Amino acid sequence: MPRSETPLRSDLFPEISPYASGMLAVDGRHTIYWEQSGNPEGVPVVFLHGGPGAGSAPVHRRFFDPQFYRIVVFDQRGCGRSVPLGELHDNTTTALVADMEKLRKHLGIPGWLLFGGSWGSTLALAYGLAHPERATGFILRGIFLGARPEIDWFLHGMRTIFPEAWRDFAGHLPEEERSDLLGNYYRRLIDRNPDLHRPAARAWSRYEAACSTLYPTVRAPFDTDHGGFALALSRIEAHYFANGTFLPEGWPWADLGRIRHLPGTIVQGRYDIVCPPVTADALARAWPEARYVVVPDAGHSALEPGIRAALVNATESYRLSTSDTELFAPRFPWDA
């Protein structure tokens, strides 16, 4: 079939189970969970979850053709099935990049496609800029670059679109603590007293979930700690935000030349309130070689229909491009 007539898939692949999984000790304190699924001899791709602190899920394997890709999914330090859950010591962006490189070597992978959304897009770029020789390409979604204005938007700016959710978020704190939402949430989230950190974790998690989709969805009410995962998400997220995501001011603009020769796709929901399009637009302008797709009817979540379709189209386009002599732009329904 001619290339121009090749249909590109627009929905997730069927559920699959890992063919291998394990725990990798990355230092004296942290051990990370990893798994591989799909084709053991396939093209390696690594899925980078968001948050920071969110952890991975079985659905994340389904963005990739399992006959073609060797799919690597792992939980970052302190997240998901990694231990200790919610641990903040030695939990920095530099450490996460080093963990990825240790995992790559442990699995014997020469290089991999980096697939990440939200905080995962930050980590994908951080790894790619540190190890451009190990990156074969980028598929990024809901761009977040860890800059102070982005953090301030999360804490305060989202109230312009979701005032009810923000009132609940701010209202969890006593009135005298609301002038420093991040500092006082962080103080509560790291407190050893569960009567302080559990309600704070539920309030933080509810706020983020309420703002993440274009249309309201049925979501867990976070009335429990969900095995500690809600606490890990909110605690690690606040830790990174309080420390400026451990990235230098002005990152990554001066270094993008190290990766611009690699294939890249940037997928952004037009109505993404958690990570507004202004950052994705700036990245696309600084990286004009990358394919930039704005999904007109989507918010932040990777599982919204339009975002889902764009991401699967991107992985399919990368698959098809590996058998051609040159990359070609993926086709999307809204490009017609």
List the topology elements.
Layout: E1 20-25, E2 31-38, E3 43-48, E4 69-74, H1 93-107, E5 112-117, H2 119-130, E6 135-141, H3 148-155, H4 163-171, H5 181-189, H6 194-210, H7 229-242, E7 264-269, H8 277-286, E8 291-295, H9 305-321
Helix pairs in contact: 1-2, 4-6, 5-7, 6-7
Your description of this structure?
This is Proline iminopeptidase. The protein has helices at 93-107, 119-130, 148-155, 163-171, 181-189, 194-210, 229-242, 277-286, 305-321; strands at residues 20-25, 31-38, 43-48, 69-74, 112-117, 135-141, 264-269, 291-295. The chain has 336 residues and is α/β, with parallel strands linked by helices. It has an eight-stranded mixed sheet, sandwiched between helices. A hairpin with a 5-residue loop joins strand 1 (20-25) and strand 2. Helix 1 packs across helix 2 (119-130). Residues 1-6 and 325-336 have low confidence and may be disordered.
Low-confidence stretches: 1-6, 325-336
| Residue-averaged pLDDT | 92
Q: What percent strand? A: 5-15%
Widest beta sheet: strand line-up: 1-2-4-3-5-6-7-8
Order of helices and strands: EEEEHEHEHHHHHEHEH
Task: Summarize the biggest pleated sheet.
Answer: 8 strands, mixed
Structural class: alpha/beta
E-strand count: 8
Principal-axis shape equals globular
Instruction: Summarize the amount of helix as a percent range.
Output: 25-40%
Q: What does the radius of gyration come to?
A: 19 Å
Distance linking N and C termini: 21 Å
Q: Determine the number of helices (DSSP H or I, runs of at least 4 residues).
A: 9
